[in-house]
Amino acid sequence: MLTDDQRQVIEAEEQLRHEVRRRLDTENPPPPPPPAPEPKIGFGKRVFDFFNSSVGMWLLSSVVLTGGAALLQNIQHNHEIAQQNRQQLSTHRFEITHRLDQMEYGLRRAKTVGDAKTAMDNMFKSKYPLTPELQNRSLASLYLSMYQLMSGTEQEKSQQAMTFVRRLEEAELSLQAETDDNDKLDDKQKERMHKLIQSIKALHHSVDANAK
Lowest CB count within 10 Å: 65, 114, 130, 189, which one? Predict the structure, then answer.
């Protein structure tokens, strides 16, 4: 067991060590803690910061406006072309129908070779055109223009109609070989041309029905 004198000596030593440590800490303070590392900036953050800047906003607006204007212009251009094609297709359809009706009516009333020739003239030129610009266009030429504006089954039927048109042209050519326009029209020849016109009209009307 420690005596009072021993206890006092120990306490004095502790106080001395404490005082020495305090002085050392005052004279040599501990180094400050290292600064915290800066947060790492990713690529996405850099891109976001760039487009948030004035230069980035200008660049973005320029690209969007230019690209958007070009896209709208392209859409408008395609719409105008499609509208022109629809208008042209409709004009050709009406003109062809009108030609076929004129031919059928004239051929039905034809008594002589000359009457039949007059009726069949509508294959190459319309006497009373619905569209003046198409007056001198042949029936085959009108169908060829329609064919280029069609697709799918409509195009197939238009091609079939062109086949009948060529047969009708052959019949008309044999009719032109007749020298005397006052001769009586052969009933078989008349019936053949009438059937060809009916076949063309049937295909033509089926194309119109599918287009509606």
Answer: 65
Question: Which positions ≥6 away from 130 have C-beta within 8 Å?
Answer: 91, 94, 95, 98
Share of the chain above pLDDT 90, in %: 1
pLDDT at 211: 54
Q: Which amino acid is present at 87?
A: Q
How many Å is the maximal CA-CA distance in the chain?
A: 165
- Is the model more confident about 165 or about 41? 165
What is the per-residue pLDDT across 138-181, written as a single tens digit (0 to 9) for each?
Answer: 888 888 887 777 777 777 777 777 787 888 888 888 888 877 88
Contact (Cβ atoms closer than 8 angstroms) between residue 147 and residue 162: yes
Check if the beta carbon of residue 130 is closer than 8 Å to that of residue 94.
yes
Of 211, 88, 106, 83, the C-alpha closest to 152 is: 211
Q: pTM to 2 decimals? A: 0.57
What's at 75, amino acid-wise? I
Six-digit token pair at 7?
């206890």
Q: Which residues pair with 184 in a beta bridge?
A: 112
User: According to the CATH classification, is domain 87-211 in 1.20.120?
Assistant: yes
Q: Is 108 exposed, middle or buried, given 0-12, 13-18 or 19+ CB atoms closer than 10 A?
A: exposed
Instruction: Check residues 65 and 124 and name the one with the higher pLDDT.
Output: 124
The β-bridge partners of 112 are 184
**DSSP 3-state of 184:** strand
User: Exposed (0-12), middle (13-18) or buried (19+): which is 189, by Cβ within 10 Å?
Assistant: middle
